[in-house]
Amino acid sequence: MDRREFLTSASWIGVGAAAGTLLLGRAAYAKHRLAAKLVAESLPDLAIKAHRELQQLPIQACEEIRLWFHGPCANSVEFAHDVCSPSFAEKLAACETEELKELSLLNAFLGRVVSETEILARVEVIHREIGRELDRSWMECCEKIAGKWNVQLQPYGATTPTDFVDRVEPLVHQAMNDAVQLASAAGQQPAFSQVLGGIGESAMSLLPIVRLTNIAIPAFALIALRHLFTYVLSHLADRTGDHGRAISDRVALLGYRLGSEFERDITSRIANLHAWQEHTIRSAAQAYASEAVGLV
């Protein structure tokens, strides 16, 4: 090949490479634009769903656990009598740290008022109710998003498949499982080590649990109980009077603090679910755009 032929061949190769680069650039830009449109179509529905769920479901959980606790409150007198007894005073005196005193009070509360098993059983019932509502809401939202995405995909000869939920839900589960792994690595073991079932029920299963010796109790309940124990210890420090009635009355009011802490916990887990759902929708939009556009 002489020099002229070489230069001619090289020029054609250059033209081909430039054309290929242009096609790839156009395809990438088209995919980006389509993905952005799909995300824009979905965000309003996700926002409406998130607002409704955060406004209703945590308050619902708060009321349910508060009303349920009225039953165990009938045992508050027994708890007050127990912790005000001379034998319990000796037990507290033998505790070298505040943590051990707290553990003694926790054992007394769980033994006299309501056990950790009963608390977890009631929480599970509430979780199941909320989880099913979250799953129903997610299904409805996905149907709306799929319909809107169809409009955007049709010019490319593509449609949103009927199994849209089945395609995006595993991505949400993966995000949850990643969160479980991170929590476990940080020593914050949730109630369940694996998330199963619908994403709503799975999100609710990520209940933070605190393990103290042979006790496993929801973190929100322990936070509420610590306020009670601080109150109890302040009264027991003064041995000159009868504090049983004051302690019993404070236990009777515990349902309000339990409800408040449970509401905060539910709000946090639902908010996390919303973040995972939005991330999944964004990922799905990019995947659908890549499938639909090709080399345009």
List the SSEs and their pairings:
Layout: H1 3-69, H2 76-83, H3 86-93, H4 98-112, H5 116-153, H6 164-185, H7 199-205, E1 209-212, E2 215-218, H8 219-236, H9 244-252, H10 254-293
Antiparallel strand pairs: 1-2
Helix pairs in contact: 1-5, 1-10, 2-4, 2-9, 5-7, 6-10, 7-10, 8-10
Keywords, separated by commas or semicolons:
mainly alpha, two-stranded antiparallel sheet, 10 helices, elongated
Descriptive notes:
The protein has helices at 3-69, 76-83, 86-93, 98-112, 116-153, 164-185, 199-205, 219-236, 244-252, 254-293, and strands at 209-212, 215-218. With 296 residues, the chain is mostly helical. The protein has one domain. It has a two-stranded antiparallel ribbon with strand order 1-2. A hairpin with a 2-residue loop joins strand 1 and strand 2. The two termini are 36 Å apart.
How would you characterize the largest beta sheet?
A: 2 strands, antiparallel
Oligomer: single chain
Low-confidence stretches: 12-20
| Spatial arrangement of strands, main beta sheet | 1-2
What would the average pLDDT be, to the nearest integer?
84
